[in-house]
Amino acid sequence: MSLYIGIDFGTSTLYVTKWDEEKQIALPVPNLIPSEYGSGNYVDNVVYYEESCNLIMGKKAVKHCQLDPWNGVSEIKRHLDDDRWSREIRGHKKTAKDIITDIFTFIKMRVETIYGGQEITGAVISVPYAFEPKERKKIETAAKSAGVPVLALIEEPVAAALSSGLFDELRPGSKETVLIFDLGGGTFDVTLFDAILGNDGKKSVIVKNTDGERLLGGANIDQLIADKFLSMMTAGSGPLHDARFRNELFEEARQTKIGLSDMQEYEIFKKFEIVDNPLEEVITRSQLEEWLEGSFLYKIDNVLDRVLDDISVQISEIEQIILVGGTSNIPIIAKRVTDFFGKRPKMIDDPGELVGKGAAIYCGIITGRSEKIDVIRRSSHGFGVRVTNKTIKPILIRNELYGQYSPFYDFSLPKDKQKGKVVIYQGNSPFIEHCSEVGYLVVNQQDYPNGIIRMQLKMSDSGLVCYRTFNEKSKFVSEGEVARV
What is the pLDDT of residues 246-296, one digit of tens each? Predict the structure, then answer.
């Protein structure tokens, strides 16, 4: 029997699901962490390396990291874009990709143990829409290095759409415009969809537009609260150089954030070894809301404005709003969305489960083990090549369909080199300073006798950049995936 899984690899938590072909539903993988340390379906995405080189995760790892922060890592997803980031752990240098590989190795071991030693047949892993191809590739490569057979990557809002019951209230021959507001632990995505139910029962989910902030989420709120705590203790920033103090402070900030989502006030009494005065405060929900009224909520408003303005969609055209991600549950954020659109979002019993379940559903769709749903996605960024020292020429425009090659773009190769690199940039600006390098391809001058290369770009089903090149007579030369920088 096949074992297909979906993995919601979040900044703060992990959620792993299994596609049940017989019941045609996505089910959580139970007890991913051994029960003596808490058996919830969500797992804190925190890893700790024991002296024996064993890796532990979840609540036990969180506790170990508070006592020994030098051999544990949290929020590793936020370091994926930094090729220079690494940590010395138990005498071994580990990059972000190394640590994520270890996490996927742990997931594979636990899932296969839970299901009686059965090997994983295939997996779909969720990623933020805002992730660049380089980050997507690192996630995919890390999982494959751990022995997880990756079938596809799926954007978190798309996965959430698949599991949110979009078609439950649609009549045949109707369409509904839906906005997914996905604010998680470390990233923020807003995506507009059309959900279409044909007269023949055919279902389609079509992305209209997407926008977001790659580094905005619950971790930013934790940072904001921690900064306020420091000022209350009149401790300055010096103690933050102590890793143990920093971990304890941020855990206190996180618990305060969680507590104020359910209560009007939260009482704190915490002693720190390296600070004379304890943190003794009662924080009210209204205080937290005042702190968030600055740049945090301003960034949310900006993204909502952009996602509508870019394709000239009116607020009145949006028929349904769905909140996804744990940070969306904070009352002031849910209220902000309600006030912005003038309507309440759809209430989901557990919005944190949507992405993980959607990943497993997509696993079923692409393997033909569930009902057919056409999922049509678009690129969240444009891609192009450098034409001057300061500018790029867009080739693949933002909002192009996945799997669809761009029109040809012709440009000249350097005449003084037999081989050269053509560097691909990502961004929605013509200026290099506002864009980032995606990767490159190496070209041979002899393949292009007159020095002219014709290029096309497209996004693969996993959101990776692919190229196709021709000479000036349109004779095919090469194709492939853009190499990582």
Answer: 888 999 999 999 999 889 999 999 888 888 788 899 999 999 999 999 889
Tokens of 362: 């997509």
Joined tokens for residue 229: 């705590």
Distance CA 73, CA 49 (A): 9
Strand-pair category, 122-127 with 150-155: parallel
Place of tokens 């017989």: 22
pLDDT in tens, 182-237: 998 888 999 999 999 999 999 999 999 988 888 899 999 999 999 999 888 876 66
- Which residue has 């992305």 as its token pair? 207
Read off the pTM.
0.89
Report the alpha-carbon distance of residue 197 to residue 201 in Å, rounded: 6
Q: What angle do CA 42, 38, 121 make, to 5 degrees?
A: 50
168-175: long-range contacts (C-beta < 8 A, 24 or more apart)? 170/195, 170/197, 171/197, 172/197, 172/198, 172/199, 172/200, 172/201, 173/197, 173/198, 173/199
Pick 383-484's CATH classification: 2.60.34.10, 1.10.418.10, 1.10.10.10, 3.40.710.10. 2.60.34.10
